[in-house]
Amino acid sequence: MATNMTTNKPGTAIALRLISIFLFMVMAALIKSASDTVPPTQAVFFRSIFAFPVIILWLWQQHDLRTGLIPNNFIGHVWRGLFGTTAMALTFGGLGLLPLPEVTAIGYATPMFTVLFAAVLLGERVRLFRLSAVTLGLVGVLIVLAPRLSLEADAVTRAATIGAMMVLASSILRALVQIHVRKLVQTEHTAAIVFYFSLTATCLSLITYPLGKITGWAAIEWITPSWEVAGLLIAAGLIGGIGQILVTSSLRFGPASMLAPFDYSSMIFASIIGWVVFGELPTSAILMGATLVIAGGVLIIWRERQLGLDRTKAKASLSPQGSPD
User: Fold this and answer.
1) Is residue 111 a contact partner of residue 300, using CB atoms and an 8 Å limit?
2) Which DSSP helix (H) or strand (E) runs through 286?
3) Cβ atoms 78, 200 nearer than 8 A
4) Per the domain annotation, does 5 fall within a domain?
5) pLDDT digits (tens, 9 = 90+) for 198-231
6) What residues make up the domain containing 280?
7) In the chain, how many domains are there?
8) Which residue among 40, 44, 205, 281 is least enclosed by CB atoms within 10 Å?
9) Alpha-carbon distance 258 to 277, whole Å?
10) 322: in domain
């Protein structure tokens, strides 16, 4: 008989979530610091392979190591890894071209695209309330992007525009990942999803090593990093692995609907780290757009929570045969 490993400890859940979000921002800052010399695909490799020791130790401690090594839907994990790895590489590329707070703000578009993809790909019904929240969020994203859509032709502007498009594409792919994971969790253990994503990300990014040598394309051609840069990348992998574990562990102590709004604390952490480490401050457009995106996201989360409560009440009103009493 399976044992329920979850328990209701809201304080612990929130603390774990906030720490994980902070660690992910530290990881992003480390990747950004190395982005001037290391291509995004090489950064993905370091991020993935050095998260392995942390993840394997965690799976062993949770007695899930065997579960994590035996997938039921291997091809499903490959597709999840392909989408997720591409999204990660695009985000890392964007970090090298944009301020950290701006990357964070554009990344908030993911829940908006998730709702749209859920309607198109999963057939979920999206009524006026959630559609309005999505529209509000996408308007916020456009406000953040607007300064990067200038017709000026200087190299700095073009690079920033490319960076913004990369992060936006990453948000779309991460929304597809979330839709795919919704299907995976029906047959796969969480441990398997965590383990095989790291494995596929490592393998897929490693493929770009010979490809970069053959093509000479700077965007994927690996370099021999200095000890300092290698240290930044290794630290990013370790910290990313710890953050991944903490964000997963937070769900043992509180529901996702309660924890999701705390993900937006990343803007606070990104602004502080961006200012202290890189001398970056969020512009008024970023703050205004992020506010609208966060508002739309919180409304979506609130609505999802209400729908969840309604479904629970509906189930409670059914007899054991599945019909109303």
Assistant:
1) yes
2) helix 284-316
3) yes
4) no
5) 899 999 999 999 888 777 777 788 999 999 999 9
6) 11-312
7) 1
8) 281
9) 31
10) no
